[in-house]
Amino acid sequence: MKKVLLFAMVLCLAMSAVAQGRKGKIEITGDVRVSELVKKHIEFNERMQTVPGYRIQIAALSGPNSRNQAFELKRKFKEDFPGVEVYIVFTEPNFRIKVGDFTSKLDAYVYMQTIKERYPGTIVRENVYPIHPDMSDLIPETDEDADM
User: Fold this and answer.
1) pTM of the predicted model, to two decimals?
2) Domain covering 50-130 assigned CATH 1.20.1250.20 in the classification
3) Over 70: is that where the pLDDT of 114 sits?
């Protein structure tokens, strides 16, 4: 029994010595288009810049017919307060209706006081606005992309 145990230990030591002596090289092969797509994605994200801001959420709707209710509420808000941007954000299962583009929380709260009477239950939410970069120098991938 001692001989078997001793033999197993010697064998393990020999295998670990051989394994440590080898230098390995890993090579990953794949479709070149995947790496090109990743590179384009990184380039797009570097061009896309954002700025922090705030919007006022006037409603969060869910359930049957909530989509139609959200668009009706958007239309009604545009009638009541023309010139203020209205956004419908769908985060399953809710349609959230948000208004305004405010750079400071104080500005959002001040405006919220003017609409709170007509739209009770409003709340100020943090938001991130994209700063749209100049995409004119991008070349379309296909003829179909050029038509967009």
Assistant:
1) 0.57
2) no
3) yes
